[in-house]
Design goal:
about 325 residues, binds zinc ion
């Protein structure tokens, strides 16, 4: 709790200073814990009564300092779960709002050359943390920086040159020539970022997934895989982006792994590539809430149809009880 409160204090101080926006604060890696304030000495400054008569060694009574004002409590703090580490060792942090499974999983920054996708996810986190009423809707989990090494380098791929969104063990995964922009790795799930994303899914068992990307050439859209056309249409009504059933064959993509192979509704939200983050947030806030409020009923997915998929080797334990929830079948 102390690091979380300290983090909020850092954000509040940033806002008060005016020279550093909260977004800047959010965009900094959150993996370093701020220094913990020293624990105040709780011994009384005045001697207890039975010592007051002990002799001249007792000094004059000193008034205790006024108590420090309580730290401003955030309206809602997500639970942070480290679902894995990047090739360079950066923690991949999943921010979980609400309890239970079957909600929405939002993923940003899987392609490092699409930083607006991470920014949009972080805007959503901050929005949820500062709403007047704490989030009480369906469970929601946000992984804003799925490829932190790529984001740091400005590359589509991760630190090993693998396109994480071509590294899922979808039925259509194909080996591609090493070094290409869409190299899917030497084998599916070879990358720690891929396994971390899978870990996030195994933890949350989402009823729907929104994976945020960006695209050039005016091709922004609500692309969908699996039974997500109705959700795409609802998001279209909010952000104005067209509904697109396919962006071409994407071997080993998350959309294929979750949507096509497992019938988990998934939206690949393609933002305009050059749009500044604040504009993307303004344009897509309502569209994201359409997804997370679950106003569009989730279509029964294939999560529980008995299709066997081993949990990722480096994935986290299952504090949300996934294995129990699925009868040990996942
Ligand atoms: Zn992308």
């Amino acid at each position: 709790m102390v690091p979380r409160i300290a983090m909020v204090l850092v954000l509040v101080v940033g806002l008060m200073a005016g020279g550093c926006s909260w977004r800047d604060a959010m965009l900094r890696p959150q993996v370093e814990s701020p220094p913990i304030a020293p624990v105040p000495d709780e011994r009384p400054l005045t001697a207890p009564a039975h010592e007051a008569t002990a002799g001249p060694e007792v000094g004059p009574s000193v008034a205790p300092p006024p108590p420090a004002p309580p730290a401003p409590a955030p309206r809602l703090m997500p639970r942070d779960v480290v679902v894995g580490h990047s090739v360079d060792g950066v923690p991949l942090v999943l921010h979980v709002f609400g309890e239970g499974t079957g909600g929405t999983l939002i993923i940003g920054g899987i392609h490092g050359n699409e930083p607006t996708s991470a920014e949009l996810a972080e805007y959503l986190i901050m929005d949820l943390m500062t709403q007047a009423d704490p989030w009480s809707g369906p469970p929601l989990a946000i992984l804003p920086r799925a490829n932190p090494d790529g984001l740091a380098r400005g590359t589509r791929t991760n630190a090993r040159g693998v396109d994480v969104n071509r590294n899922f063990a979808a039925a259509n995964w194909r080996f591609r020539k090493t070094g290409g922009a869409q190299w899917g790795g030497n084998h599916p799930e070879s990358e720690p970022e891929t396994r971390a994303i899978l870990g996030a899914m195994y933890l949350t068992v989402p009823a729907r997934i929104v994976s945020i990307h960006s695209i050039g050439g005016g091709r922004q859209c609500n692309n969908f895989d699996g039974p997500a056309q109705v959700l795409a249409q609802a998001m279209c009504a909010a952000n104005g982006y067209p509904v697109v059933a396919t962006l071409g064959v994407c071997h080993g993509s998350l959309g294929n792994w979750a949507g096509v192979d497992r019938s988990v509704p998934i939206i690949t939200l393609e933002l305009p590539r050059d749009q500044p983050g604040p504009d993307a947030w303004q344009q897509n806030r309502e569209a994201l809430f359409v997804a997370i409020r679950a106003e569009v009923p989730a279509v029964a997915s294939a999560w529980h149809t008995g299709e066997e998929t081993d949990a990722p080797a480096e994935g986290p334990a299952s504090p949300l009880g996934l294995r129990d929830a699925t009868g040990g079948q996942r």
